[in-house]
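Board notes, transcribed. Complex of a protein with pyridoxal-5'-phosphate.
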Amino acid sequence: MLPFTRPTIGEQEQTAIREVLESGWLASGPRVLEFEQALAAYLGNDVTVRVFNSGTSALEASLLASGIGPGDKVIVPAMSFVATANVVVRVGATPVFVDVEPVSRNLDVTQIESVLTSEVKAIMPVHFAGRAADMPRIHEIAAASGIQVIEDAAQAIGTRQSDQPIGASGNPVCFSFHPNKNMTTIEGGAVAVKDEEFVARLERLRFHGIQRDLQGHIDVPEWGGKMNLSDVSAALGLVQLARLDEFNQRRRELACRYLKRLPRHPALTLPEDVPGHSWHMFCVALDFAQLNTDRSTFQQALQAQGIATGTHYPAIHLFSLYRRYGYNPGDFPVTERIAKQTLTLPLFPQMTDEDVDRVCNAFSTLLEATKA
Ligand SMILES: *Cc1c(COP(=O)(O)O)cnc(C)c1O
C-alpha cells in the first residue's frame, strides 16, 4: 500500500532520540535552545524562533501575543485545515472567511478589501500545500489598513518567495512539525518573529506565564499555558532540519514527474510548479460530476490498486461550528468546488519514480474508464 504521506525517519533520528533519552533531561532543555537557533539560522534575516508543542499552539500563542481577543476579527481563508480558524475562536475572536484562488488554493487577495472593517485586527494567510500566498500584496493591504499579518506557514517550512524563506519576513510566522509535514518533531511547531517584546510574550504564554529576571527571580505577570516542546522532539527536529532541503528537493522532483506524466483532461485541474514551492502536498481537482462518478468511488478504485489518497480539505465555513457564525453554502464558490473535487496524491521523499509512474498509470486508466 502506497500511503499519501509518510515521514522519513532514519538511523540519525533514532540515535539523536536515544541520546536524549539517555541524558536524563527529556523536557525542554539544551536541545530546544539548539533547535531554535538552528531554525533561526535556516530562516535568516536575524529572526528569533520559539518552538511549541504543536503548530496549533504556535498560532494560538501568536494571536494572544498580538493582543487579539474578544471583539476582534481575523481574516482567514475558507480553504485550509480547520486549525486555521479554530485558533481564532480559541482566543475569543471571530474568523472572517475569504475565498481562495482556484489553482494555488491560496487566499484570493482581491477579496480582502471587501471584508475589512474596523473590527478586523489581523489577517492570517495560509501557504497552501507549500505554495506561498501573495505576501507582497497582503503586506501592502495590511500596511494600508493597519492590520497585523500572522502567517499560518504550517505547510511551508522550506518554502521560498522573492528569494527569501517563508518565515524571514519579521512578522509572526507559524510552522508545524506534525509527522505529515515536510519535517517532523512528532508533534511540534514554531514561531519566527523579529520583535523582542513579542518573543518575551511567547515565552510566557508557552510556559505558565513565568518570567525570570537576571537574578533568576521569577514572576508571573500574565497567564501562560503549557505549550513547550520536549528535548526529545527538538533532537529529532535538529536532524530533520539538516535534511529538510534534501527532502524538499526530492518532493519537487516527484511533483515535477507527476506534472509531466499525469494526463491533460478537461475535468482535471493540476497544481502548478512555481519557484520556491516546497510541495507539502500534491493536490489535484477532478470534476467528478462531469465524469459521471463520485469521489469515494474513484478513491476506492485507487485504494484497490494499493494507492491511498487524501481529501484536503473540506470547506471550513460549512462545518456546523462555523455555520453558527452565519456562513452558508454558496458563500465561497471556489473553496466549495475544491472541497468537493480535491484529491491528494501520494507524495513523500522516500517515494520512487516508479511509485509516481504507477499512480499516474492507475489514475489515467481510471480517468479513461470513467470518461462521459
Ligand atoms: C497542520 C496544520 C496546522 C496545525 O498544526 P499542528 O502541528 O497539527 O497543530 C495548522 N494549519 C495548517 C494549515 C496545517 O496544515
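The pocket of pyridoxal-5'-phosphate is lined by residues 54-56, 80-81, 83-84, 126, 152, 154-155, 176, 178, 189 (CB under 6 Å). The first strand starts at residue 48 and ends at 52.
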